Amino acid sequence: MIYDVAIIGAGHNGLITAAYLAQAGKNVVIIEQNPFPGGAAVTSEVFKGFKYSVFSYAVSLLSPQIINELNLNKNGLEILPLKSTFTPLNDNKYLLRTDDPHQTSIEISKYSQHDASNYPKFLLMMSRMAEAIKPILSMIPPNPWKMKISNLAKLLRLSKHAYSLGQDDFYTLLKLMTMSASSFLDEWFESEPLKGTLASSGIIGTFLGPRSPGTAYIMLHHYMGELDGKYRTWGIPKGGMGAISDAIERTAVKYGTKLYYSSKVVRINCEQNIAKSITLSDGKKIEAKQIASSLDPHHTFLNLIDKSHLPHDFLNNIKSYKIQGSSGKINLSLDSLPTFKCLPHNGQHLKGAISISPSVDYLENAYDEAKNGYISSEPYLDVLIPSTLDSSISPPNKHVMSIFVQYAPYYLKNGWGVTEKNKLTENVISTLEKYVPNIRNIILHKQTLTPLDIERKIGMTQGNIFHGELTPHQLFFMRPTIGYGDYKTPIKGLFICGSGSHPGGGVSGYPGRNAAKTILANS
Question: What is the spatial distance between Cα 218 and Cα 422, in angstroms, rounded to a whole number?
Fold first, then answer.
């Protein structure tokens, strides 16, 4: 049997590509190496009664348009909003930002009246910038070096869109695209607690520090997610991150998609520079008229394709594509809720994001250690206790804690072994203990994932959660490389549909949706 489209990888983007193609009447098959769908967006009962969102841990970017078009809510997806960000500090101080503007203003004014006054203006500005970027997310990037009418038309629309922003907003957007998070925030605020917690959004998943150029855009990238029409609103899916993948899979299967699980692709076979079939690890071949890979660009082009089929310049660009892993993940089962020194009671601060990011210096120091090949001794931690919102993921009166850790560099001086993995765990627990004295006493189980573990378990090169840095030279029509931002590749009939394509990482679904549009247009 020859399928219309074969898709490599059942991560959320691969599933979304399949769902749209099958919805359009294509005969689609997905091949996934793991025995379950989702890639990084999975839920697993690692310890009895405790369900972890093992890798990806929050919904920040999933497109409402995709949710509606694929009827994901009808297929079981329910997103529970996170309504606060809590930043514990030293000396029993803290910063708590909530969805109540008045309460947030009072909290910020403890550190700076100037910042309390500027914060609402900052949020409005970032919402405008997110609104300005939003049309570009769903655009198939043009290739400015090909003088086709379609490319020229897209470039003209981009020019009109840029002009429509007005001089001031265009200048602000340009600064966000090029500045460091720290420098950009310095133009707005003076208090370290606020600048530290805001700057942390600029380093998530990237091997850069808050003072590195380009991190202001990464900060904006995390503002582009929306729930119920509100930008910068994060949430958790009821049942864990796997609920997203399960809902997309149901839609894809409903429209006739066939799935092969526990099947690893080892080769994309080409004839006369045309993709013809894929070979599985058991030797089986699957033929298709078109093939799409949702794997990262390094894995797709350097591991699955005979390099003789790729142009020399393209191959060199892929080899130099920046994809270094910088983060780890720790999941904990807790006997009870943590007790923070600064806010010891149970309250709203435990039902939102908990950010260990007391200052820009704190984040930069963590980066300094990582860039020299060491695990951060005092890392940035992005912590959630999803069981405070979703009781289905833990036993009664017990809890799950999800900890995203930055920095845990893929390349360490001593490499990743048992000793270094234990050191990562200890650094995280000891950092938490400074704010949560009872943390060691309430841990029932723990799961630690280094970037090497992430690479081995779900195939992300170097454990990079975005399938490549979201730096300016790797965005839009330059993602993954110049001239190939439109989801096509140098091989006819082969497309990419993962986070290594525009608009990049995060559980947004845009790469999958955009790739499906490209595949349909080239069928």
Answer: 30
Model pLDDT for residues 207-256, shown as the tens digit of each residue = 999 999 999 999 998 877 655 555 556 899 999 999 999 999 999 999 99
Q: β-pairing, 2-8 with 285-293?
A: parallel
Tell me how far CA of residue 85 lies from CA of 224, 440, 503, in angstroms: 17, 23, 26
User: Which phi and psi angles does 375 have, rounded to 5°?
Assistant: -70, 135
Q: What is the pTM of this model?
A: 0.94
- Dist. CA 39–CA 23, nearest whole Å: 22
Domains held by the chain: number: 2
Range of the domain at 115: 105-228
Phi and psi at residue 397, in whole multiples of 5°? 65, 10
DSSP state of 300: I
In whole angstroms, what is the distance from residue 469 CA to residue 473 CA?
9
Tokens 């955009």 found at: 514
pLDDT digits (tens, 9 = 90+) for 26-54: 999 999 999 999 999 999 999 999 999 99
d(CA 201, CA 183): 14
Domain identity same for 222 and 280: no
Token pair recorded at residue 18: 């399949």
pLDDT tens-digit series, residues 401-411: 999 999 999 99
Residue 12: pLDDT above 90? yes
Find residue 277's DSSP bridge partners: 269, 287
Of 202, 228, 254, the domain-final residue:
228
Q: Residue 397: how many CB atoms within 10 A of its CB?
A: 10
The encoded tokens of residue 224 equal 């582009």
